[in-house]
User: Which sequence fits this backbone?
């Protein structure tokens, strides 16, 4: 219910705007974007709607993140590891 409420939708829009509607992993702008909590949604209820508690991923990167790290008890450190992993392995352009 919380994730379908107004407060969540407002947080999501502020987050996407902060990140310029761009996936922080692959750099894709626009398309289907997903908000991801840096500090776990269930464990940190007071931080649920802090813009600083969010990371913007595209749909594919969000699915890849959860495939690698699971869907519960995720951490900010995992996000940094995930983003660093892809940035470090990206071929030179």
Assistant:
């Amino acid at each position: 219910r919380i994730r379908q409420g107004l407060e969540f939708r407002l947080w999501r829009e502020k987050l996407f705007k902060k990140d310029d509607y761009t996936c922080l992993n692959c750099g894709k702008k626009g398309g289907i974007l997903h908000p991801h909590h840096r500090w776990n949604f269930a464990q940190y209820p007071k931080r649920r709607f802090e813009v600083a508690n969010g990371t913007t991923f595209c749909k594919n990167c969000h699915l890849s993140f959860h495939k690698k790290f699971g869907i519960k008890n995720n951490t900010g450190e995992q996000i940094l590891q995930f983003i660093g992993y892809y940035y470090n392995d990206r071929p030179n352009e």
User: Anything to note?
Assistant: Residues 86-93 have pLDDT under 50 and may be disordered. The chain is about 40% helix and 10% strand. The first helix runs from residue 6 to 18. Helices lie at 6-18, 59-69, 76-89.
